[in-house]
Write a structure and sequence with these properties.
It is a single chain. The protein has a single domain, classed as Porin (Beta Barrel), CATH 2.40.160.10. The protein starts with a helix and ends with a strand. Strands 1-2-3-4-5-6-7-8-9-10-11-12-13-14-15-16 form a 16-stranded antiparallel β-barrel. By secondary structure, the protein is α+β, with helices and mostly antiparallel strands. It has 6 helices and 16 strands. It is globular and about 60 Å long.
Length: 417
């Protein structure tokens, strides 16, 4: 209880520091609307992230002097994109996590990510059937600790991931694919080296660099999403409000090894059909039913599985987003065989600040483990157009491999240009 009270005091302090201007919910809504039409994938996909960051730079911030300092760089980048069709963006994020308990004394982890994100329109530039080469070149590295947040779960006995995407994989070409818009179906397809997580069970809050950190809050733990690999994803609108989306990707995908199906014909397959009020509202309000299947990975010795997920989110008064999921899986490929997660995100109207709270209750696939509950809360402080600081706390009840119930405190910094 003392730790929880301390955490609440810290959150209250962050809110007290947050001074601001008039509410900007409408500008934030425009970011998500534009991103939903810019990308077939979710808010964390390359094209969606580029669009959100571009629009965010147009808003007021707490440090207008810092914004003006970066204006010449941004203007040069935009002019280059207009001349060549190559839209380049740079971002850097760092995450530090500390756990109240551990198995062997390793209770802290920190890592950073430096990324170059590119979207190069090479076909029909500026039209509604444009084709682009999309890529992310990144470097993930440790920051003064022995472990990255992506591996902290092993040190504290937790079945899951407390710091999604924050690993130590050096320099990698995480995605590189062709993206083709198909205006006839208000959709398109991507093909190449893709991240299947960008096209699987997407709701409007799913971005591990700007919202939650725990995988079981961002996604359902019944979904066994592989690392990036070669694959194809596509989707479009059956009516003005009903859409379909699907992805087939290498089940043996790897961030570090860019290989063509190293395990042979072993696939991760996901498909969904969903409803949204309009195409540009897909991130804001959405209900969908998704099904998935992953093949046995023979060389890796990993079994396959299949399952289904019912997911939805709704945005109220442009400032509150409610979300929830029900998930089920069969087989041993997933972390959990049953799971329910729900939560809320709230924009208090202080610049681009954001508060989030989520809970996931999951029955592990391993029948010897008890039902696990994951709780996460964060507050993201919008410092400038290019800089944000997020304070985060996670409570892990029945984590799986320890009798302790750890609290994991996190601090994440993100800079984009």
């Amino acid at each position: 209880m003392a730790r929880i009270k301390q955490t609440m005091s810290v959150c209250a302090g962050v809110l007290a520091i947050a001074s601001g201007t008039s509410a900007q919910e409408s500008s934030v809504q425009r970011q998500l609307e534009a991103a939903a039409t810019a990308s077939l994938g979710g808010p964390a996909s390359a094209q969606a992230q580029l669009e959100q960051d571009r629009l965010r730079r147009l808003e007021n911030s707490r440090l207008p002097g810092l914004d003006r300092f970066f204006d010449p760089f941004e203007q040069s980048r935009e002019a280059f994109a207009e001349r060549t069709g190559l839209n380049l963006s740079f971002d850097y994020q760092a995450l530090y996590q500390n756990s109240s308990d551990s198995l062997n004394g390793n209770d802290e982890a920190a890592s950073g990510q430096a990324r170059i994100i590119g979207n190069w329109e090479l076909l029909n530039r500026g039209s509604d059937n444009a084709g682009s080469l999309v890529f992310i070149l990144e470097n993930r590295h440790l920051l003064g600790t022995d472990f990255a947040p992506g591996g902290l779960a092993n040190e504290i006995g937790y079945l899951g991931v407390t710091g999604t995407t924050f690993s130590d994989t050096d320099t990698t070409l995480s995605v590189a694919y062709w993206s083709q818009a198909l205006p006839g179906i208000n959709g398109g397809f991507v093909a190449g080296r893709i991240d299947p997580g960008d096209y699987s069970d997407i709701l409007g809050y799913v971005n591990p660099r700007t919202t939650f950190s725990n995988f079981s809050i961002l996604f359902s733990p019944v979904l066994p999403i592989p690392d990036p690999g070669f694959g194809i994803a596509g989707g479009g609108y059956i009516t003005d409000q009903i859409y379909a989306l699907g992805v087939v990707s290498d089940a043996n995908g790897s961030l570090t090894d860019v290989e063509w199906f190293p395990g042979g014909s072993e696939f991760f397959t996901y498909g969904e059909i969903g409803w949204t009020p309009a195409r540009d509202q897909r991130y804001l309000t959405n209900v969908h039913l998704g099904v998935f299947h992953v093949d046995d990975r023979e060389d890796a010795g990993v079994p396959g599985g299949h399952g289904a997920i019912l997911s939805g989110n709704v945005t109220l008064n442009e400032s509150v987003m409610l979300f929830g999921r029900l998930g089920w899986s069969d087989g041993d490929a997933s972390i959990a065989k049953r799971a329910v997660n729900a939560g809320v995100m709230w924009r208090p109207g202080l610049y681009d600040d954001l508060f989030g709270f989520g809970v996931t209750v999951a029955d592990p696939t391993d029948p010897s483990l008890d039902t696990q509950t994951t709780v996460e809360a964060f507050y993201r402080l919008d410092i400038s157009d290019n800089l944000a600081l997020t304070a985060d706390v996670q409570y892990l009840n029945n984590p799986g491999f320890t009798d302790d119930d750890p609290l994991v405190f996190g601090l994440r910094l993100r800079f984009n240009l």
